[in-house]
Write a structure and sequence with these properties.
The protein is of the alpha+beta class. It is built from 9 helices and 12 strands. A hairpin with a 5-residue loop joins strand 1 and strand 2.
C-alpha cells in the first residue's frame, strides 16, 4: 500500500508540473525555408519524467508496508534481526501496523476457534489391528503463547496446521488407539475419543486447546465382520440369559400356584370332615325318624319281604 501511495504521489506531481509548464512544451522556430514552426522541447519533459522515474524506483525499493489486523485476530510484529532462532523480539499488535519488510515481519493469528479436517490416516490398534481414521476437531490458540509458538516453529498458522499440529494430533490418536481393544473402541467410541482429547491437550496445552475431536474411525472389512459376529454372540447370550430367568420365574409361579391349590384342597377337606363330625354329633334316632317322615309320600310298599319292617317305626 505504501509503495502504491508513493508511486501515485510522484506520478501526480509529475503530471502537475507538466501541466503547469505546458506553455514551454513547444517553441517557435524557422526551418530552412524560413517558415515558422512549433518545435517540441525535450527539456520540458525532463523534470516530469525524472519525478515519474524517481517515484517508480522508490515505490519498488522502499521497505515499508502497512497491514491491517482483522477483528478476532492478533498480530505479531517480529524483529527478524537477532540470534534467538532469527528473532530478537516480537510485539502483539492490533489494527493498522506499519513495519519495515527488510527487518520486520507481521503475521496474523486467529484467536477464535478453528475447525480442521484431515485426510484419511492409518492407525494401529491394540493387538496389531489396523484401522482408518479421518480426524476432525476444533482448536483455539492460547493468546499469551502465540509469540513463543512462532519463536519455536517459525511458521504461520496455516503451515503449523498442516505440519506440526497434524503430526501431534495423529500421534496422540495412535498412542491412545494402541492401548484400546478393537471391540472396546467401537462399543465405547465416546470414551475412546474423550481419551484422545485429553492426550492431545496434555501434549498441546502449551500453545493450543483442542476440543470436539472425532476420529471417524473405520475398521477393515474382516474386522467389521468379526465385530458383527461377536456382537451377535453377545446378544444371543443375553437373550438366553433372559430366557433362563423367565423360565425360573415361571417355575416359581407354578410352584406357588400348586401350593395354593394344595392348601385349598386341604382346607376344603378339613372343612368337610369337620362338617361330617358336627352332623354326626347332632344326629339322634328320633331326628332320623323325623327326616324319614318328611321324605315319605304316604304310600306303603306293595310287597313286604318277610321279616322286614316298615319304612317308619309306627310305634314311635
Amino acid at each position: 500500500m505504501i509503495s502504491t501511495l508513493i508511486f501515485l504521489g510522484f506520478t501526480i506531481a509529475a503530471g502537475l508540473i507538466a501541466l503547469k509548464t505546458r506553455d514551454k512544451m513547444y517553441v517557435e522556430t524557422t526551418n530552412r525555408w524560413n517558415d515558422t514552426v512549433q518545435k517540441f522541447q525535450v527539456s520540458w519533459l525532463m523534470k516530469p519524467l525524472i519525478l515519474f522515474i524517481t517515484g517508480l524506483i522508490l515505490s519498488a525499493m522502499q521497505p515499508y508496508a502497512i497491514e491491517k489486523i482483522d477483528a478476532g485476530h492478533k498480530g505479531l510484529k517480529i524483529n527478524l534481526i537477532g540470534n534467538q532462532r532469527g528473532v530478537s523480539s516480537y510485539q502483539y499488535k492490533t489494527g493498522w501496523v506499519l513495519f519495515n519488510t527488510w527487518t520486520e515481519q507481521v503475521l496474523e493469528f486467529p484467536t477464535y476457534q478453528q475447525h480442521i479436517e484431515y485426510e484419511d490416516q492409518g492407525v494401529i490398534l491394540k493387538g496389531g489391528f489396523s484401522a482408518t481414521i479421518k480426524p476432525t476437531f476444533n482448536y483455539s490458540l492460547r493468546e499469551d503463547a502465540i509469540g513463543d509458538m512462532f519463536v519455536n516453529l517459525r511458521k504461520p498458522i496455516q503451515e503449523v496446521e498442516q505440519g506440526w499440529l497434524k503430526n501431534a494430533i495423529i500421534g496422540a490418536v495412535n498412542d491412545v488407539a494402541n492401548t484400546w481393544e478393537v471391540d472396546s473402541i467401537f462399543n465405547h467410541r465416546q470414551a475412546f475419543e474423550n481419551a484422545i482429547v485429553i492426550e492431545c491437550n496434555n501434549r498441546l496445552s502449551k500453545w493450543f486447546n483442542v476440543s470436539q475431536l472425532r476420529t471417524n474411525i473405520v475398521p477393515p472389512d474382516a474386522l467389521q465382520e468379526s465385530i458383527i459376529n461377536k456382537t451377535k454372540a453377545i446378544q444371543q447370550a443375553e437373550a438366553s440369559e433372559q430366557q433362563a430367568l423367565a423360565a425360573i420365574a415361571e417355575g416359581k409361579r407354578k410352584v406357588a400356584v400348586a401350593r395354593a391349590d394344595s392348601a385349598e384342597t386341604i382346607i376344603n377337606a378339613q372343612a368337610a370332615a369337620l362338617a361330617i363330625k358336627i352332623k354326626q354329633t347332632q344326629l339322634s334316632p328320633l331326628y332320623i325318624e323325623y327326616i324319614k317322615a318328611q321324605a315319605w309320600n304316604g304310600e306303603l310298599p306293595k310287597t313286604v319281604a318277610g321279616g322286614s319292617g316298615t319304612f317308619l317305626n309306627i310305634k314311635n
